[in-house]
Automatic annotation (TrEMBL):
Name assigned to this protein: DNA repair protein RecN
Matches recorded under CDD domains: ABC_RecN
Annotated coiled-coil segments of the chain: 157-218, 334-361
GO biological process terms held by the UniProt record: DNA recombination; DNA repair; SOS response
Keyword entries, A-Z: ATP-binding, Coiled coil, DNA damage, DNA repair, Nucleotide-binding
Gene Ontology CC terms: bacterial nucleoid
A molecular function GO annotation: ATP binding
Family: Belongs to the RecN family.
Keyword Phosphoprotein in annotation: no
Pfam family, one: SMC_N
ATP-binding in keyword set: yes
Species, as recorded: Chitinophaga dinghuensis
Stored Gene3D superfamilies: P-loop containing nucleotide triphosphate hydrolases
Length: 548
């Protein structure tokens, strides 16, 4: 529960500290005194957006601090999950600098606004003047029924539904890819078939180009090789024979000079090397033959290769083979897409079957919860001055969605006419306020929210209806901390703690102040709410009776 609220430099509040009771806290005051400003400040520590325009003193920072007494496992889990200090007392602080920069802290540890907003869901339910519009919201209506039904299958269903959506997205993505790929498939297959038919080998075109050079110059090559071979071995004085004679001459004088044997040995090596060269030249000469038919074949193959080079914008056989491999992968990928889509389709069907089974159990739980909800809310409506009003829950089973297969509508009939219509369309403002109070009082019994805050929940009601609203709030306050801003004396009379908001003019500035009223002050203020600024004796007696 909220133990203390501290506000500094916010709107027309200079400095304010309010200690709340754990039961029914009522806040009253004249219109414009600043009652809703308190809730505006409170909303900052609940994660609402900060507006630097609310600073009372534009040169100083605004600070709003809430001190909560926490006995909630969900809060403890949240603090553990976000690595925040877990203590019995939870201190949430929000600061807005003069420059407009906002900072938030939980137990003095900085947090972001998203974390603050998530944490606040476990601490406070804040109902403001125009929140009655939520009654017409489908999500709010579903949350109300689920809070009462507590469908145990819903968490597992939602996890499974996420998987189902992922499979659906993947199926659509692959299906779209297949459609695009199919448009390219025929062309890619044509290109691939061309390359496969051509059947180029590694470096083939480069090798053929070299072979063509040899074939085209076969006669010149053979003549040159023959001439060189003749000079080395078959001339009148062959070079090899001359080298042999030179080596013999060197060996003859090798005993006369110490360096000559080394020269003779080198000459021998040169002789052996030239002999090997002569043999290679002879073999090469035998291999080189002019072949017109082969030249024609090579030219045709090269022409084919160069056409592919030009067509695919490449310059080497290796690049051409790489394109062939890529085309093979693309064509195979398209053919494999059908198998993948079939697999995903089967997965979708399997998940859908599981979801339908789980959704059915969720629908049953909601349908069962709707019956006592209708009965209880109708009883409460009679209690708050709407004896002829009826509420009905319309649950329609349809397509699977993130919360099951149901769409829900709260239908309302104000006059026992059996002509039910969506509550958001047919209920008046005063009726919506009372309906919302009845709904929240029922939900509060199922959902553990330590603090419920109502900002003028009594809009559009008075008299006996206001009295009954006070009774409901008093009953709620047995299990929950209630903070209620009201203009109704019947509600104020039920308070465990009554706070009065007023404006105080000092140093040429108007400030909002709050004080906790004593018993006699309460009686006087309630009497003023009944009869005006100067209450009559009857009003004072009536107020005293209300407080009792």
């Amino acid at each position: 529960m909220l133990q203390r609220l501290i506000i500094k430099n916010y709107a027309i509040i200079d400095h304010l500290e309010v200690d709340f009771s754990g039961n029914l806290n009522v806040i009253t005051g004249e219109t414009g005194a600043g009652k809703s400003i308190l809730l505006g400040a409170l909303s900052l520590i609940l994660g609402e957006r900060a507006d630097p325009g609310v600073l009372f003193n534009k040169e100083d920072k605004c600070v709003v601090e809430g001190i909560f007494q926490v006995k909630n496992n969900q809060v403890a889990s949240f603090l553990h999950e976000h690595e925040l200090d877990v203590e019995d007392q939870l201190i949430i602080r929000r600061e807005i600098s003069a420059a407009g920069k906002s900072r938030a802290f939980v137990n003095d540890t900085p947090v972001n606004i998203s974390q603050l907003s998530s944490l606040s869901q476990f601490l406070v339910d804040l109902h403001q003047q125009f929140d009655t519009l939520e009654l017409g919201n489908a999500d709010f209506q579903r949350e109300v029924i689920d809070a009462l039904a507590k469908p145990s299958a819903l968490p597992q269903y939602q996890q499974l539904f996420l998987q189902y959506q992922q499979v659906q997205r993947k199926y659509k993505e692959l299906s779209d890819n297949r459609d695009v790929a199919n448009k390219e498939l025929d062309y890619n297959k044509f290109l691939l078939d061309e390359l496969l038919e051509a059947d180029f080998k590694e470096n083939e075109i480069e090798d053929l180009d070299g072979e063509l050079q040899v074939l085209s110059h076969a006669e010149e090559i053979k003549n040159t090789l023959s001439r060189v071979y003749f000079q080395l071995k078959e001339d009148e004085q062959p070079i090899l024979q001359q080298l042999k004679q030179i080596q013999s001459s060197l060996l003859a004088i090798s005993s006369f000079h110490k360096d000559v044997p080394a020269v003779a040995e080198r000459m021998q090596s040169a002789y052996v090397e030239l002999q090997d060269i002569a043999g290679d030249i002879d073999r090469l000469s035998d291999q080189v033959q002019y072949d017109g038919a082969r030249i024609e074949q090579v030219n045709e193959r090269l022409a084919q290769g160069y056409r592919f080079f030009k067509k695919h914008g490449v310059q080497t056989t290796a690049e051409l083979l790489e394109i062939r491999d890529t085309l093979e992968q693309k064509v195979a990928g398209v053919l494999n897409l059908d198998d993948q889509l079939a697999s995903l389709e089967a997965e979708q069907a399997r998940l859908q079957e599981q979801l339908l089974q789980m959704a059915e159990t969720i629908t049953i739980a909601r349908t069962e919860a709707a019956v006592p909800f209708e009965r209880n809310v109708n009883e409460l409506l009679a209690q708050v001055g709407m004896p002829n009003a009826r509420m009905k829950v319309d649950i329609v089973t349809g397509e699977l969605n993130a919360y099951g297969q149901d769409t829900m509508d709260l239908l309302f009939d104000a006059n026992k006419s059996n002509q039910f219509a969506p509550v958001g369309k047919v209920a008046s403002g005063g009726e919506l306020s009372r309906i919302m109070l009845c709904v929240k009082s029922l939900v509060a019994q199922s959902v553990h929210l330590p603090t419920l805050i109502f900002d003028e929940i009594d809009t559009g009601i008075s008299g006996e209806a206001a009295k009954q609203v006070g009774i409901i709030l008093k009953d709620l306050a047995k299990e929950h901390q209630i903070i209620c801003i009201t203009h109704q004396p019947q509600i104020a009379g039920k308070a465990d703690a009554h706070y009065f908001v007023y404006k105080d003019a000092a140093a040429e500035k108007v400030r909002t102040s709050v004080r906790l009223l004593t018993l006699e002050e309460r009686i006087n203020k309630i009497a003023q709410m009944l009869s005006g600024e100067k209450p009559t004796a009857a009003a004072l007696e009536n107020a005293r009776e209300m407080v009792r």
